[in-house]
Structure formats: C-alpha cells, structure tokens
Design brief:
Layout: H1 16-32, H2 43-62, H3 67-93, H4 101-124
Helix pairs in contact: 1-2, 1-4, 2-3, 3-4
Length: 126
C-alpha cells in the first residue's frame, strides 16, 4: 500500500479508539455480507456508511488544529456510533445476523469515544 508522505505518524493512528473503530467497521462489512440481497441499497449500505463514518470522523478530528474542531468531529463519531448501534439492533431482531459480539465492540468503542470527548472537553475548559 502506498503511503502519503508524512502520514505514517498521523495523529489519528496514535489513538486506540481509531484502531478499534476501524476494526469494528471491518466486522460490520463482514457481517453485512450475510444480509438479504434486497437490503443491499438499504440497511446494508446504511450500516456500512455509519461504521466508516465513526473512524473517519475520529481521523478528521485528530487532524484538526483547534480543540473545538477536534471535539466537534469526535462527537460526530459518537453520533454515528449511536446510529450504528440502533441499526445493528434492528438487523439482529430481523434475523439478518446473530453476531452478539458486535454489541460488545460498539459498547467498547463508545466508552473509548466518551473518554476521548471528556478529555478534550476538560482540556478546552468546557
């Protein structure tokens, strides 16, 4: 894989929550392959976009200069995580998958994101 010069030490790559969120997105892609084919442009697409949005927003936040901007993107990631949690609860209740570990991974990423957000808020004084 070709690397962007200077990106090997990118700030988001130093965040464990980014790595966990990326791992979660990979799991979502794998599990969503089991969804019915007629859901390809509905729930399948939606859960995949939400999962990618989580680690993408963490990346974007980590790359921002101001603490306020960082906090904005970290809270956007948390919103996407909440969206994903609801969608995966629905897909499980509809019998599209039976992977109960996803809920645990979502909860773990949520705890880590909450910690990151709290830390950033304290640093910014709000």
């Amino acid at each position: 894989m070709q690397r962007i010069r200077g990106m090997d030490d990118a700030p988001h790559k130093k965040l464990l929550v980014w790595h966990k969120a990326k791992q979660l997105a990979r799991r979502i892609y794998h599990v969503s392959e089991q969804f019915p084919k007629d859901e390809r442009f509905a729930l399948t697409s939606q859960v995949r976009r939400a999962s990618v949005s989580i680690f993408s927003n963490i990346s974007e936040g980590a790359g921002r200069w101001t603490g306020k901007d960082k906090l904005h993107f970290y809270t956007m990631a948390r919103g996407s995580l909440t969206e994903l949690e609801s969608q995966m609860d629905l897909t499980m209740s509809m019998g599209f998958h039976s992977d109960k570990k996803i809920a645990d991974e979502i909860a773990e990423v949520g705890r880590m994101l909450n910690g990151l957000i709290s830390s950033r808020r304290m640093k910014e004084g709000f």
